[in-house]
Batch of 2 targets.
Target 1
Amino acid sequence: MPKVKPQRIAETRPAKAPQPPVPATRRGELRRAALIDAARDIFLEQGFARASIDEVVQRVGGSKASVYQYFGSKEGLFGEMIAHQCQQLIDSAEFPGRGGAPGSDVEQVLLQFARRVVQLFLAPARIAMHRAMIAEAERFPELAERFYEAGPKRGLALLSAYLRSQHEAGTLDCPKPEWSAIQFMNLVRTYPMFRALHGMQPMPDGEDLDEFLQHAVRLFLDGCRIKR
Amino acid sequence: MPKVKPQRIAETRPAKAPQPPVPATRRGELRRAALIDAARDIFLEQGFARASIDEVVQRVGGSKASVYQYFGSKEGLFGEMIAHQCQQLIDSAEFPGRGGAPGSDVEQVLLQFARRVVQLFLAPARIAMHRAMIAEAERFPELAERFYEAGPKRGLALLSAYLRSQHEAGTLDCPKPEWSAIQFMNLVRTYPMFRALHGMQPMPDGEDLDEFLQHAVRLFLDGCRIKR
DNA sequence: GTGTTAATGTACTGAACGTTACAGTTCATT
DNA sequence: AATGAACTGTAACGTTCAGTACATTAACAC
């Protein structure tokens, strides 16, 4: 006896899963988490379009039914995976301390910050995620925004707060800290990230990279008319 | 820090079509060109994986047989399309004049350059191409490199030549023109391009954007210790 | 015109994939 | 232990799509 078909899908996209995406049992939670983990690997390795749900399921040994129970669709799975990654990003990415000790050298603080930023942005997982987000930005605009806010925006906020404090303390001449933060990030991050996104070999390694960062910091500080 | 790629990675990929990709008749040439045009639209709209050859063929009214005669495979078509775009890029993208008139204001020259760069890099077709290249960088490393050389590298070369000439003329203190060129480009290009690649709305429009560019140029010149 | 080669249109194949149905299994609670 | 709900495995459906076979048509040389 065939059950009543819920086939009356409206022309407009349902968008949000009508299924309850929250598992009610422990095993369910584990399966859900495992699926997200596997999805991350597959999606970030192959991109959304090329990735197949079968491969995700094979990797965790579960079954496709679970995917559709928890996530409703391939896009739903992708979205949850990205959201999960964003949360991890927020939890894991601590930047150098707030304003820095008052006595510490601004150039050193910024250099440390630059190193940390590059280290974060060049992590292979981060690059893969960046790639996936750029590739699918038009299909998932809300995810792109989420990613931006979980990642780059937090770094910018921290940095501009620091710059503002230094400006008010008279250590830097930095009347537009938000813009200056953007410019600092651009100086520091773009070149290696650009190469990484385009898969260009070789990546700038430790020594060269650090020299590049020092150069960038110095340029930035000259522009802010540091008083040493 | 532009490090030269030291050696070519062993190529397991067959890559080159065994078919003769050159049409011998006039109609063939036209068909081939039309296919590349349509392929550009479809691929840049949908990305490599989601694009379908049938759609490309439908758009020009031809048939799949031609695609496989001229390009051998979907990847072949994609590659030829990208190469064609790169050539167009080279042909079309003239930057502000070589060294600039000796008497002209450096700040104005750089600002003009910045405007031109942003205009070029933010063109929707360019953004779409960038997206496609980033998404498929791992599958088509040689194309990514070609794209880089047809696009960004040329701008960098022009700019660093200009910076070097100004350094030698004593107008700028710019002992490492290649690095400085990279940094200038990073300052000028990154922020709007980043937003565009991530599909974020709204894009910075005329007035704000120009103010941003002026800010960037000024920061750069302060760093180069311009003598006015 | 006639013959030869290149190019095209049609129709198909085989495989991959997203999605669903359903029956069997495990879990949580009483 | 019992029971109903949550969960999972199997297998299929319908579709899409890259790639191919082949017959037809256009282009060109003579």
Target 2
Amino acid sequence: MRENTTLKKIAEQLSISISTVSRALKDHPDISPETKRKVNELSELLEYDPNPYAINLRTHSSKEFAVVVPSLSNFFYHSFISAIEEEARDLSYSVIIYRSSNDPKIEQQILKSCRHKRVSGIFIAITSETTDIEPFLKLDTHGIPVIFFDKVPQYESCNKICVGDEHAASIAANEIFKKGISNVIGIFGDKNMSITQARLKKFNEVLFKDDKEMNLKMVHAKSSDEAEQLTLSLIPDFIGKKFAIFCMSDEILAGTMKAIQRLGLKMPNDLGVIGISDGMIPKLFYPEITYAETSGYNLGKLAFSRMMRCIAGSSFAQTIIDESKLVQGGSI
Amino acid sequence: MRENTTLKKIAEQLSISISTVSRALKDHPDISPETKRKVNELSELLEYDPNPYAINLRTHSSKEFAVVVPSLSNFFYHSFISAIEEEARDLSYSVIIYRSSNDPKIEQQILKSCRHKRVSGIFIAITSETTDIEPFLKLDTHGIPVIFFDKVPQYESCNKICVGDEHAASIAANEIFKKGISNVIGIFGDKNMSITQARLKKFNEVLFKDDKEMNLKMVHAKSSDEAEQLTLSLIPDFIGKKFAIFCMSDEILAGTMKAIQRLGLKMPNDLGVIGISDGMIPKLFYPEITYAETSGYNLGKLAFSRMMRCIAGSSFAQTIIDESKLVQGGSI
DNA sequence: CTGAAAGCGCTTACAG
DNA sequence: CTGAAAGCGCTTACAG
């Protein structure tokens, strides 16, 4: 096994001191051009690369960001991470991706490891079970900025970057409204989730904004399968009427679409379908599903710029909401 | 910002030496029970956690594995990573996930960073553009085992863990055969990919194993859209016959399914569909698509045990092929 | 312009 | 059973 090149080795070969080599390599003004040239040449030759552990031990900084998500099998998080990585690369930070598996215990371990590694900052979508946010606040105390995204705590005074749940729901509701559809099934997620509450409330509100008569049936599904069953049981009452189904999330949309295929119904004639999505699932069907887009990519860009402001010293906590836009498929 | 607890701080408070604290903490037999008790107590109280940078600098070991994949938006990789993380956690290793974005340059950067970090080992699915595998072999020289999985280089003498392309293709072909279907459309991926070649060859071979008459049309699609277009243009010739479509991958399946929905055809009566998949996409349709399963999870378990054997000193390079199994949907 | 020295937080061979 | 010391590879204030 070949030894790694160190400053010492370069210094010895050039018969100069380690300090000089170190300075030459970082283009310190004190060092003569001639020395710099020699040092750079040799370090190229020997493929010198500084030992990050030594640097960190010395400087207490890692130039690393951590992104923590409950799950990776999620297009939304995937595009969020892409955005972070793009930005990070430009500033020669690296990005470590952690997966909490939606388990608060694992989340705590990850957090601890982030602290020990003295990462420069953390982007995190918390688990649905996370109750104690004390450890997150403590990291801020330790000088490690924490930016919450997507799944964020209730607690007020922290940095949060969220999808505009209300906005997305209102876009979807408006589209239904504009199509003159007055029979609507709304399938929402777990009652206890804050995004369910936000989306439901706004959806309802917009749909009833005029005093137009509306026949709205709202239900909750905790899984794709449940959404499928609910859709199957609800549709019969709507057959023959002009109606639409709103799916609050990709998971629900997947279940609903299975039911629709099972019943052999065609969009947009037999019924309309509209969702809120990051855009992968809706594109698997024909016609493609119309949806209000929640973009992980946008969210990532917003989160990153917030992070850089924190690193620059801003201690002001802020909640940023990303707006969504309607993406037309042919399903409604 | 609160300072981190160090060995020194504990030693001072207890008026003993740093060495003793260090030893007590790792339950060294030399140290008296009494001292151990005191040290452990105080370190609990002060929430002592060793500085990983210092340890690494000293011991040259990181207890960290790297997993490098071209993309995260891929259920297969996701389940591979899950398997690795499970195993790693048991041995208190941590796992860093890197994404090469299918760019060999980024892949090289990641590799370099793995080397500097002296990760304990690397699991990697290389990019489709990766030609130079020299740097990977060099890592082995540096004592960092590299296990290739899924997308592996041609080069013989390295550790590779692969999906059984031939086996999966033969399972799918056999199922078509067993159903007595003799008109078949086979949609394959990019001609240049080794998995395309392996799958195509075996599929063809099994389908023609008896001398039964077979009407097989094989085409290549580079994208989901292309698969959709091909399906649309090929189906008319098969309508009325008893026929099936084989989709080599999820990407192709997604395109083909869009075409089928567009034409309003029903499985399994109008046609049969069968694929090779990790199982997420097939479950989005009704009826669910029958597929030969390539399990990222299995692959991960296999890769991990291979890794541990490498770390234990095995230098013998090995190629391991994971078998697949048929998962019945109702599509054929 | 260059170098010697201290120190980041740990581990471990050596000495007692 | 415990401690002093060296050293992992770097950076940087200090001195010249």
